[in-house]
């Protein structure tokens, strides 16, 4: 059995001019990532009656924090110019997730083990988690902060959305700076044929726009979960003749 090749190491990095090192750190920090967001609960049993009480304790990401924040003081200093702690709940829970709003994509509703990019079929193993956008945007002790800063979003479409006339758009439009959103349709969770998903999404989008005509629509793409294949871009012209 062949031993694995050693990881390349550039031993002279500390000897580089500071301005070059800083450019390298800036490049590393601007590398796009897909960051899953989930919520965490704590449970305890009450002594008087043995009932289990669950408490919401905030939003977090199961994905690792940026490695450069732990490399050196210089790397951390430069990294914090790009990453910020985000998605706390105002006055209730501190933010726990480092996020670069200029480069990173927020993924909401992913299955616990769905860590890979859409092009990798291994990304799709367990189906979607419960729908979380309404909880994330709901305000109060459960609503996450900083959603107005998100530019790139992935939504794993939960089966409950297909019976909503507004689909997921009432929540998506609350991401006020959004440039691009990707919908992941899980084939095992839906009754709508894949060939009609673009029309279905576009028809519900048109319905929401009738009530919110000032909404500036981001780029919207749809993928299938089985292999990550791109269905295409969701366009209002695809809604012609399709009822929801």
UniProtKB/TrEMBL annotation:
Record-annotated 2EXR domain positions: 10-106
InterPro entries: 2EXR (IPR045518)
Pfam families, A to Z: 2EXR
Protein name: 2EXR domain-containing protein
